[in-house]
Structure prediction request, 180 residues.
Amino acid sequence: MQGSNLRLPACKAGALPAELTARARESYDQQVMAGLRITAVEGQHQGEVLEAKFNPSEIDLDRAVTWRQQSGKGPADLEFERAEPAEMTFKLLFDGTETAASVQPQLDRLRAFNSIDGVLHRPPKVRVSWGAGTGTMPTFEGVVESVAVRYTMFAESGVPLRATADVKLKEAANLRSHAP
Prediction:
């Protein structure tokens, strides 16, 4: 039995088939139960991970290139100028309603990835990954450009129990701070 060719018997949602071996169970967990992870790869939050409890239903990945019209040529005669960094966007759902737990700690961790790091003097680079092994979404390294949070449910005490966050990242390789 090979990890990526694992055939699973039918079972109820959320239940693991009883006949899975320990190795097959681990492969199942990695392939089926994996959550989207955002990991800080540098700075004071290096190694910190935010794992989505609810995976996004969509992830947009956009890469643009810039072309310009060649001077003195026809409108369809183009010249390549440059490739732009890729951009990734997705929406995360944070829900603590089953246990009446605040979602604020998870949102604070997400915002830390978009805040000025005391060591770097700029926001840190992060890695977005989902799943492990062959055929999974490629990892994306970049910076969090924006986080827009919408609180959608509160406890009577005002504790946020549910929220969504629209996250936008920009591909990044070598980063530096702008010296004031």
